[in-house]
Amino acid sequence: MTTTTARGDGDRADLPGAGYDGLGRGTAGGFAGAVASERTKLWSVRTPYLCLVAGLAMTGVFTFYYASIARINEYPVQPVGNAAASSAVLVQFAVVVLAMVTVTSEYSTGSVRASLLWVPRRHLVQAAKALVAGAVAFVAGTACAVVGMAVAWGPFGGRASFEAGTAVGQVLAVGLYQALVAVLTVGVAFATRHPAGALSILATLLWGLPSVLLGLGGPTLAAVNDVLPHGAGDHFMRVGTDAPHAPATAALIVAAWATGAQLVGLYVLRRRDA
What residue range is the signal peptide (predicted)? Predict the structure, then answer.
């Protein structure tokens, strides 16, 4: 059901992004207005800041541990960026929470009705949330990757290599993966409309199921893990590992999961009342 409002002078707020200020004057919106609104709403609460701090903290701890284990066990020399790429298995949940609250917080408070009054075209609301969450996640992911490389270099103790092109590629790959996780999360959040439900699905998909598949072992289960979001993402973030897919193919697999989640979320958004 599309939510609309009408004014006495015949103007309607069912145009894309149409709205009115406190003096009753019309304000322009559309997709650009929806994006600006979502950006403002995101940074007006504490959750994004806490998620970013948590992500950086997890990156520091995990990469220090990863590099120390590589040195102690005398692993072969590997790109220093592998430590940061491996930390994504934990850091992604900071991104999940950040992206999830952009949707579920509005359903829990009922403010989603105001969002749909401001932008009645529901797909624009969803796209704006996905774009903002994805952009923030990309920046956060690249920042965490840079911090992870800096932290891991010392503990590696000579078991890591640094090549500028490889390092830049891994930083961008980590950022891309986190952005796709954010888009995936927005879709799941619109489909479930509840933080517990969304978090349960995402924790199972991004961590629980891969852990079970790899724990049980075997080529068949490993092949299944390779087409799950984190399994595929790990293949284009890390360098020097035996990957069943080319980096571009692995990235497309993660993008397909994010797209599928968006389509399911949009279906629910359009079929159910706010």
Answer: none
- Torsion, Cα 246 249 253 255, to 10 degrees, reads 120
Statement: residue 233 has pLDDT above 80: yes
For residue 84, give the nearest of 197, 175, 219, 213 by alpha carbon: 175
Place of tokens 């349960």: 200
Would the pLDDT of 195 be above 70? yes
The Cα–Cα gap between 81 and 103 comes to 32
Length of the chain: 274
Euclidean distance between CA atoms 136 and 52, whole angstroms:
10
Pairing verdict, β 78-79 and 26-27: unpaired
HSE at residue 60, side-chain half, CA atoms within 13 A, is 6
Q: What is the mean pLDDT of residues 248-274?
A: 94
Closest-CA residue to 185 (of 175, 199, 171): 199
SS (H, E, C) 9-27: CCCECCCCCCEECCCCCEE
Q: Is 0.90 topped by the overall pTM?
A: no
Tokens 């991004």 belong to which residue?
206
pLDDT tens digits, residue range 17-26?
444 333 333 3
Q: Quote the Cα angle for 8-13-14, to 5°.
A: 125
Give the angle 234-240-246 at the CA atoms, nearest 5°: 60
Q: Where do we find the tokens 């960026």?
A: 81
pLDDT more than 90, % of the chain:
79
